[in-house]
Design goal:
Radius of gyration: 23 Å
Strand order of the largest sheet: 3-9-8-7-6-4-5
CATH architecture of the largest domain: 3-Layer(aba) Sandwich
CATH superfamily of the largest domain: Type I PLP-dependent aspartate aminotransferase-like (Major domain)
Oligomer: single chain
Number of strands: 13
CATH class of the largest domain: Alpha Beta
Order of helices and strands: HEEHHEHEHEHEHEHEEHHHHEHEEEH
Number of domains: 2
């Protein structure tokens, strides 16, 4: 055994972690030892879960499980390569063909996650000659995708379409700028307006018709990230473009197969030319091994279930309206939520952490969301009900919220 006295170059991390704990911003990892369902086993304790994105219960749907098993037997456990070399299997192509038909678009390209879909597509379609216009509360993956692009970008206040319109008017009038910010007189090749369809922390829906109208007026294109709208909004869960009847007017749709579809992955839906260019240039696609066959097959079966069992979405919304309404009746602030994402606003990070711990003790798994995911004064408990929850389970959750809320002085006793 040696006595190594060399200084640890990463020693500062321990100090930073201690500071996070002091500020109530440290988030410990819980361990799930059961299937992802309405009731789960977390850290050895059985709880009702309000923390999963498994909106429709498809993560354990028998048809998806069987599809995954069959694909593993037929194709093996892994694909063995990136798709441009040797990992492009027939199951991947079939998934994309059916996804494109489902989304009413020409083509789809799948990615390893919704995050990599955004960081893949934005740098491919935008560059120095372009401009990105982004909602202030867009998802972190959109922000990172913009950072990876060489395009300049401007941000408009959340859902403020009047401000968006003014930015677009100014961008068209001013044109491109040089490194010093001076107008060059040259028009932008592309102005890309990017928005979430459903905002992941507040659960509100983008005013997509107004965004599209503004973009069309000033010759811009629209990109929508429908991660939390996929399987939730629109006919059979086709998303916000379908929900607002805007097919053919949104250039790029990003979706996920990791939430309502119950499996894993992201996708970009749009034109055939968009798909082909992403195959040539999107770095997450080019440098990551493709989905295991089981994942692709389960995602494919999820599309079939969405088409065959629309009652799952009906049940999701019925549960959502009940739970959200009861939380508000108890006196909780659920913000501006319009979807199954229902934040219970705490404000203070310490209160959010304490509230979550007490819910855990009362048999409810509902995680706190604190900075940097949300602003320092916007801490919350983020809840999501699913189609799997029974009314009895939701009532048990509501009783726990009422008890803890009164204990902590968040609602009247």
């Amino acid at each position: 055994m040696t006595n190594d006295t060399r200084p640890d170059p990463l020693g500062f991390l321990a100090d930073e972690l201690a500071e996070l704990k002091k500020q109530n911003l440290y988030r410990p990892m819980r361990v799930l030892s059961s299937p992802q369902a309405a009731e789960v086993v977390v850290d050895g304790k059985q709880l009702i879960s309000l923390s999963s994105n498994n909106y429709l219960g498809l993560a354990t749907h028998p048809r998806l499980v069987e599809a995954a098993l069959n694909a593993t037997r037929e194709f093996g456990a892994g694909s063995g390569a990136v798709r441009t070399i040797a990992g492009n299997m027939s199951i991947h192509e079939q998934l994309e063909t059916e996804l494109a038909a489902f989304k009413h678009t020409e083509a789809v390209l799948t990615f390893q996650s919704g995050f990599t879909a955004n960081t893949g597509v934005i740098p491919v379609v935008t560059g120095e000659a372009d401009l990105i216009v982004s909602d202030s509360l867009n998802h972190a993956s959109i922000i990172d995708g913009m950072r990876l692009s060489k395009a300049p970008r401007v941000v408009y206040p959340h859902k403020d379409t009047a401000a968006l319109r003014e930015l677009l008017r100014e961008a068209r009038a001013k044109g491109r700028t040089d490194a010093a910010g001076a107008a060059t007189g040259e028009p932008h090749r592309l102005i890309l307006v990017v928005t979430d369809g459903v905002f992941s922390m507040d659960g509100d829906i983008a005013p997509l018709p107004e965004i599209v109208a503004a973009a069309e007026e000033f010759g811009a294109a629209v990109m929508v990230d429908d991660a939390h709208a996929s399987g939730v909004l629109g006919d059979n869960g086709r998303g916000t473009v379908d929900h607002f009847h805007l097919h053919g007017r949104v250039a790029i749709q990003v979706g996920t197969m990791s939430k309502a579809m119950g499996v894993l992955g992201g996708y970009v839906a749009g034109s055939r030319a968009l798909r082909d260019m992403l195959i040539q240039r999107a770095r997450p696609f080019l440098f990551s091994t493709s989905h295991p066959p089981a994942v692709a097959a389960a995602c494919l079966e999820a599309i079939h279930v969405l088409l065959d069992e629309p009652e799952l979405i009906d049940r999701l919304w019925s549960n959502t309206l009940y739970f959200k309404g009861e939380l508000r009746r108890l006196g909780f602030d659920t913000g501006v939520s319009e979807t199954p994402i229902t934040p219970v606003m705490m404000g203070d990070s310490a209160r959010a952490q304490t509230f979550s711990r007490r819910l855990f003790e009362e048999g409810v798994f509902a995680q706190p969301v604190v900075f940097p995911t949300v602003a320092l004064d916007k801490a919350r408990i983020r809840t999501i009900v699913t189609a799997e929850h029974s009314t009895a389970q939701l009532d048990r959750c509501l009783a726990a919220f009422a008890k803890v809320g009164k204990e902590l002085g968040l609602i009247a006793g």
